[in-house]
Amino acid sequence: MYTEQNVDIIPEKWYNIVPDLPEPLPPARDHDPENSSIDLLNRILPKEVLRQEFTSSRYEKIPDEVLEEYSQIGRPTPLIRAKNLEKYLKFTGKIFLKYEGGTVTGSHKINTALPQAYYAANEGIQEVVTETGAGQWGTATALAATLNGLKSTVFMVKVSYDQKPLRKKIMNLYGADVYPSPSTLTRFGRHTLEKDPNHPGTLGIAISEAVQYALDHDIRYLLGSVENCVITHQSVIGQEAKKQLEILGEKADTLIGCVGGGSNFSGFTFPFMDTDAEMIATAATEVPKFSQGKYMYDMIDTAGILPELKMFSLGADFIPKSIYAGGLRYHGAAPALSLLIKHGRIKTDEIDEVKSLEAFRIFSKTQGIVPAPESSHAIATAIDYCKKPENQGKTVVINVSGHGLLDLSFVRD
Amino acid sequence: MKLALYLTFPYPSPAVFDRFFDNMMTMPFDYVELGIPTDKPYYDGPVIRRTHRKALDGFSFSALNEAVRKAKQRGKRCFALVYYNHFSSNMAEFLDLLKESGMDGAIVPDILTDYFDERRKIAEAMKERDLSLIPFFTSSTPDKIISEMIQLTDDWIYHGLQPSTGIRVPVSIDLLVNRIKKLAGAREVIFGFGINSMEMVRELKKEGADGIAVGSSLVNYIENNDVDGFIKEIETLGGAVYD
Ligand SMILES: Cc1ncc(COP(=O)(O)O)c(C=O)c1O
To answer: What are the beta bridge partners of residue A131?
Structure first.
């Protein structure tokens, strides 16, 4: 899996879709007219990350050090023909999996954690902070920080913190300090706990806490999803998949992935935007951002510290049900992805927890890979898709964004 | 290179504005940009946003006509900076008034981001009145849209360096200037939004920018009622631009 010749599959540049969009990406906007939250980004993000967030360049060179780290953590990730699943579904086409669960932290999140931590360390920063929902992003941050000689702090959404003790252990093992959010460590956390001491937490609240903590301690904040530079970094997924298909002499007819903030889906599909591949983005029915959300300017974090972005959103104060797919419990979706959905270039689907669990079981049994609960949503969409007569014979690629080996508590015996 | 100077009209009051404006007119520069105050200047930074709020009360077209007349007398070209959000409900009437004021054209920063589907309609309405639409681009304007807007217009081009005015996030000026110059061909491209150091002006010049537009950095002097400092700032900018 990690042979030298495979390393050629890792791209040398990240792809930024902004110059190729069908209309301009609506710019970040200040939430509070008295202050510039865009200016505030200077205090919480590494300079190079901020530059990449607003760049007009189509390609960004991946630093050699980051390329080396990519190969250390399991890139390129495998592209696997899912023959057993094809047989099970009696599908006459081909199903491929791009398996991001194959990285050492078990998901795609490490693809952006590494460059962000690298740039922070390069700028002389000693410590980074972030939030995590399901724990995947916190795990990736913790490892990326350690590999780059940084200390890390992670605010973990309270429900996940309670549901997934193993996640906390891994983060601790990688050297991170982990706190349940809402916490008493920040003003916003204390404010939230005063109103409701048993608040289950949300990703929006955890982001607010992490950003406030970064400001209070003059350290840097790592961005887990939604922002454009994250999607640019995640383009390694789609670029690799495209090359791997090419080597096999295959062409993708359909690309399917799940959407929390939109980073794995966008990183997977955007490099295919110059093809006529059909693209389907799957959200959770319990977080119905595509069917019931509005395309509007909204806050990224609940406290409104970060600039607002135009996106499909259910509102920053939306409190989703405690579904197991913690990574899908986010009120919005990346601006470039939202814009392409609005244009009809990307289609959407919504899958509920029961159905995702069914897909999770089928997939585990046929392919042996235990998918992340988030990824199971995409697999469910793919199963529906491959059952339809009109889709027979097609080549379908599913991005399996992570493995679910640490999420097994949600499977009843 | 050319120098474009931005003031919100009439900030902070008609009388104080006139004093600064009249002094400004004695200085060498090329284009005047007058901001038409609005209650939602979304794409401006905090400094310019403040000026909009204060200028709203003092605004009148008759006063604007007088300011434009003075500028034209001095041979300056005159452009409005106005949000489409501000005149979308009475476009024909508003553009007629702009034309009557003697303006050469307008920069409308929210067309592409908030009123994308109306871009052709606005460009045509301005062309009919012989007003130049100055296309406003940023690093997030896609290549194809830049090319299309260049086809739809025929005067200079405004390129924002920053996500909004008066703030500064890191940008690679060389990449940015190269991209737009390649797409713009022979058209004049003037850079603004966040120019606040001579170092930046020099770098823009080195990379082949056709001009710079400055606004936020002038507001301080008006706020402090410092006419001498204001004039000196324009002199310094002119020095860097014209030398
Ligand atoms: C395995 C996995 N898939 C998907 C997601 C959703 O995030 P995004 O849409 O940014 O890829 C997460 C987020 O935590 C995740 O951990």
So the answer is: A155
* Whether B85 contacts chain A with CB within 8 A: no
- Token pair 């903030």 is found at A261
Quote the CA–CA distance of A118 and A150 in Å, as a whole number.
Answer: 9
Number of residues that this document lists for chain A: 413
Contact call for A27 and B114, based on CB within 8 A? no
DSSP-H helix ranges across chain B: 14-24, 46-55, 61-73, 84-87, 91-101, 111-114, 119-128, 143-152, 173-184, 198-207, 216-223, 227-242
Collapsing DSSP states into helix, strand and coil, what is residue A129?
Answer: strand
d(CA B78, CA B102): 8
Q: Which of A223, A258, A406 to mutate to test the pocket of ligand 1 (most atoms within 8 A of CB)?
A: A258
The answer to whether residues A263 and A89 touch, using CB atoms and an 8 Å cutoff, is: no
ipTM of the complex: 0.85
Distance A265 CA to ligand 1 centre (A): 9
**Which residues, in sequence order, are bridge partners of residue B192?**
B160
Each residue's pLDDT tens digit in chain A (413 positions)?
A: 445 556 689 999 999 999 999 999 988 888 776 777 888 899 999 999 999 999 989 999 999 999 999 999 999 999 999 999 999 999 999 999 999 999 999 999 999 999 999 999 999 999 999 999 889 999 999 999 999 999 999 999 998 899 889 999 999 999 999 999 999 999 999 999 999 999 999 888 999 999 999 999 999 999 999 999 999 999 999 999 999 999 999 999 999 999 999 999 999 999 999 999 999 999 999 999 999 999 999 999 888 888 899 999 999 989 888 788 888 989 999 999 999 999 999 999 999 999 999 999 999 999 999 999 999 999 999 999 999 999 999 999 999 999 999 988 777 76
- Vertex B87: Cα angle to B113 and A29 (nearest 5): 35
Q: Which helix (H) or strand (E) holds A353?
A: helix A353-367
A263: Cβ below 6 Å to ligand 1?
A: yes
Question: Which residues on B lie below 8 Å from A32 (Cβ)?
Answer: none
**To 10 degrees, the CA torsion angle through A25, A31, A34, A40?**
-70
CB A243 within 8 Å of CB A233: no
Domain ranges of chain B: 2-242
Question: What are the two backbone dihedrals, phi and then psi, of residue A212, each rounded to the nearest 5 degrees?
Answer: -65, -40
Residue B69, amino acid: R
Q: Give me the total of CB pairs closer than 8 Å, taking one residue from chain A and one from chain B.
A: 90
Q: How far is CA A58 from CA A20, A53, A113, B148, in A?
A: 8, 12, 21, 19
C-alpha Rg value of chain A to the nearest Å? 20
Question: Which residues are bridge partners to A94 per DSSP?
Answer: A395
Does B2-242 carry CATH code 3.90.1170.50? no
Put simply, the answer to whether B176 touches A56 (Cβ < 8 Å) is yes
Q: Which of B201, B226, B164, B189 is nearest to B16 (CA)?
A: B226
Q: Which of A383, A401, A378, A314 is nearest to A86 (CA)?
A: A383
